[in-house]
Amino acid sequence: IALGGVLAHAGSRPAHTGHGHGGVAAIMRPETGGFSERGWEPLIIKTVASRAEGVEDLLRACAAHADALDASGEAARRANERRERRFLTLARELLFEEASLRHAHAFAEALDSARSGEVDAYTAAAALLARAIAPADAGASSEATG
Asked: Rounded to whole angstroms, how far apart are CA atoms 127 and 64?
């Protein structure tokens, strides 16, 4: 990472890079890129956008990286993780929205009891969840049998 003209690279001492990106590329450029025992070793590709220099090399390196991710199974693993995170986020949001709409009064009571310190936040949330997922007729059947 180049910050204020100083290069900080994991596992190495900062080295002065001078001005411009050429110094960074010269110091950080590994001879080869690809997977190693430590994972993906990126290849630093020097590009000059105003002269379209290095663009083809950069595109080839990006394609090689994508191919390596596919071949190693890493791309599929990451895609699965993204889908899982998306599902869990949506499930939490939808469950929260549904519970807060259907049980607005209970939600407000639980929040107030946690806010006041009457109960801890976990206890208040667990009680709200138990109330929200209880079958609609659970109270009626227990009253009838009790």
From this structure: 53
